[in-house]
Design brief:
With about 260 residues, the protein is an all-alpha fold. The protein has two domains: about 10-105; about 135-255. About 60% of the residues lie in helices and about 0% in strands. Helix 1 runs parallel beside helix 3 (about 55-75) and helix 8 (about 175-190) runs parallel beside helix 11.
């Protein structure tokens, strides 16, 4: 990638958004689409945006600060890059959420550090989505999945637990890829699973596509999620309300156990 001056765009926030949006687009093209090594993508992108066309000191400092933020995200939070850059719909509100998570969470869990609410100490399977929901909460989610007809066969709490732990003996077949992706996105949004869910599900081969019956890849989850968000429907609202209820249930249980 040629090292050319980065064109300044509006104020500091606008410039940062432009950088992140371009980084997102380049990530999908080079890493997801062309299987470029992530480390080379990061190095090339940063080198290609080292300079700007600012002539004043304030503008140069602003660009340097934004490049520092971008470098921190790309080099320290690959989990957030995978979560936010895989989605083609990178809007300003997505940038705000990305920056919030970057500033307040650690890469290990994607959850804000809360000393009074430690996550359970346990040896999770390598492909686990990091969920610690109990049977009652999983039963509610299973009911939601069945009502939304996410899979071609009904699921129960036990099946969902195996799915979230990456230990399914037989993969589930999606009945609607968009709703399946939206379902996991809502779980991630409420911090009930890890941000890398698309990649973990791909590695586990847990869900088969609704059309070809092959294990869904992380890029397919991302595309399906983009389509779902651009074409919302009533079933998505059902899923959102259900997952919100599970989140509130989990918070109440944590408070009661103090």
């Amino acid at each position: 990638m040629a090292n050319k001056p980065h064109k300044s765009v509006g104020n500091e926030r606008d410039e940062l958004f432009a950088l992140l949006k371009e980084a997102s687009s380049t990530y999908r093209k080079e890493v997801v689409g062309e299987s470029k090594l992530y480390e080379l993508y990061v190095e090339d992108f940063l080198n290609g945006h080292y300079y700007s066309d600012h002539r004043d000191a304030a503008g140069k400092n602003r660009h340097r600060k934004n490049i520092g933020i971008l470098k921190g995200i790309l080099t320290k939070r690959k989990d957030l890059v995978e979560q936010f850059f895989s989605n083609a719909l990178f809007a300003p509100n997505r940038m705000d959420e990305l920056l919030r998570l970057f500033n307040t969470t650690k890469a290990s869990s994607g959850l804000k550090e809360e000393p009074d609410k430690p996550r359970p100490e346990t040896n999770l399977p390598a492909l686990s989505l990091g969920s610690f929901l109990n049977d009652n909460q999983l039963s509610l989610i299973a009911h939601c999945a069945n009502e939304a007809q996410l899979f071609t066969t009904p699921v129960n709490a036990g099946i969902l637990r195996s799915l979230l732990e990456g230990t399914l003996h037989q993969p589930l077949k999606s009945a609607n890829n968009r709703l399946v992706a939206f379902f996991f996105d809502r779980l991630c949004h409420h911090r009930l699973i890890l941000g890398r869910w698309e990649h973990l599900l791909e590695q586990a081969g847990s869900i088969l596509g609704s059309r070809d019956g092959r294990p869904l890849k992380h890029g397919q989850y991302s595309s399906a999620l983009s389509l779902a968000k651009s074409n919302p429907n009533s079933m998505q609202e059902v899923i959102s309300q259900c997952v919100q209820a599970v989140r509130e249930m989990a918070e109440r249980n944590t408070t009661d156990n103090k």
